[in-house]
Predict the structure.
Amino acid sequence: MRNSSALRQAGLRAAALLSCLVLLALVGPMPAHAAYPTSGAIGTLYHSLGGSSGRLGETTSPVRCTLIENGCYQSFQRGSIHWTKATGAQATWGAIRTAWSRSGWENGPLGYPTSPERCTLIQNGCYQSFQRGSIHWTNATGAHPTWGAIRTAWKNSGWETGPLGYPTTDEYRSGSETRQNFQKGWISWASGRGATVHITTAPASFSLNGSGFGHGVGMSQYGARGMAASGKTATQILEHYYYPAKATSTTAHANEEIKVQLVAGRKSVTITPAAGRLRVKVGSSVLESSSAITVERTSAGTVKAIVGGTSREASWITVEWQNTRYWSGTGATTVAVSGTQNGATGTYRHGKLEIRQLSSALNVLGVMRVNTEYLPGIAEMPASWHQEALRTQAIASRTYAYRNLGSVKSACGCNVYDEVASQRFLGWNHENASGSSPWRSAVRATQGMSGSSVTNARVVMHSGALIDAVYSSSSGGKTNTAADVWGSAVPYLNSRDDAASKTAAAGNPYASWTVSVSQSSMAKAFGLSNVATIELTRATSGLVKTAKATSTQGATATRTGVQLRSSLGLRSATFTVK
């Protein structure tokens, strides 16, 4: 009986085998396993990636929720999906997944993935973010994770677009320190020292992205334009930028004269009347001319005027022309002075000229009344701008000029320069230019008149004194403090919001800018043989406070942002470096 039963069972098995062979012949070999179902967030992501016909392929395991942080995962032919409540469902595949596996999966230093793989980087690079780091891949470097202090140092150097490039190894031990290699250097870390960047190849150039133009302290001119366009008055604009100073009127200095340096450093100048006559006072002598005269600085250290065939010399001379307060006459006589305005020729309608000596050269000074003769020639803001913005500029320029009256500066024998060292003064070339009428109107609107005399004028004051009404084109979005730029705090020159300078109404061409600085220029600015990396620290306004450069040999040098702005000819000291 046992034998017959065994025979019968063997026959049944043979029949079953024959059936399977027939089925295989009809439909082909069966897969090693059946596809597993997906569900929840893992299933949603899987289907969004194309399901079984997508990047991951068929499922190869059920959903398993046995990981740390109550995490779940499901395996697929070409990757996996991991999920936690904190990170959501994220897929990994390819070289990045292999690198994650190498680091210890979710139990390693990276933790769970927090983003999908993104391939948007230079050199066709890809990356994926994790809870405590990231993995970057390129075809040339492979996939390598970064985390901790080394990753932070890489980030601060500019990630893959910085001087290091992409990582080329995982972290590894080298003696007492931990290292990671990159395309153009390495980063080392040691307890008590932290992470240090080492560059083996200095970049050929640096890309600087900045914002603003000028020192960025006090009033922002483009900010004033933007605020005026939004309905703010000159008083509101000034009291915003110079807070807590106040705009007010004063009778002081109303008709005082100011000395403006027009020419310096030249041995000779030519002065030409456009109409009428001019006269030269040399000591007790007076020489008149209706044509050009020449003034020279002699080897004996005197000032010599050559008028026609006659010359006179003294320690200093005065030049006057008709139809001014100094000499009546007909017509609107002006004089042209060679060598002004950065070597060009300046034209002047008001006041008189004093020509003295300074540093073995001539020093040509324009002497004129502040309100009626100097301010109309200030060229610090386009006359086409909003009237309230122009009035803001007129009040700031007047306040600046008033504060500089009195004793002349020994460096120039003047109260103010005619260039941006003080404020730009173009004289008649600006006052009488086409379209300049709104500027003249703004000047008049900020002062009271009685006949040809000024009775009072608008200024900005703090604690009963005129403020130092400095201003610049614009800032990086917040004005800078005087302390950050010049080293000394001033109560009304603090960081103020300058978002108005970046509005469309401001029309600011310097709201953002980019320049390329060559390796040689950057190395010269820092006084190093080369510059491999630059680390920046910032003030709250965004101004670069310090820039620390490191050479490929490890030498370092530090400069302030203000120093770099000067040495590199940057528009402002608010910038980033790549």
In short: Confidence is low (pLDDT under 50) at residues 1-33. The first strand starts at residue 72 and ends at 76.
